Amino acid sequence: MMQEVKIAGSRVGVLIGKAGATKKELETKTHTTITVDSKEGLVKVEASDENTIPLLRTVEIINAINRGFSPERAFEMIEDDDLLLDVIDLSVMTEGPRQLDRLRGRIIGKDGRAREQIEDMTDVEISVFGKTVALIGYPEQMKTARAAIDMLIEGVPHENVFAFLDKKKKESKQDMISYYY
User: Which listed residue, 40, 56, 154, 174, has the most CB atoms within 10 A of its CB?
Assistant: First the structure.
């Protein structure tokens, strides 16, 4: 089994790592073979057996690194099969670079505080990189983080988004309490 992924030139070095360490670690942990064409930004992932799960997971991790996550953050998806990657393409929602910058600014917030607060309240990791917003998290938390980001994209004031997140957090705590009692 083989799959190809195109990555940004600026992320090739991050994927390969110092003296090839990141690439080697990814290959070892996922039992795949990774070939990187750094000029084209083309990454070929091969899995020796018929089990496609390691291949697909490796491609997902490469996509996470390509979307701005550090290898350490992306590698969390190897240890935990329940973690998902979701990528939101902001370029389809904007009519120009100024509008794209404005959206990214709303999601990141002043000094990165909006992004940080969404991460803290949902336990989802967020990377705003280029024309995309990428998320790594569990399905239920991911749904909440995605809703919060969608609200920011639609222009909902930050305080309303944080109130929504606070309500969701309280609901999930309530669900956990009723689950155990």
Answer: 56
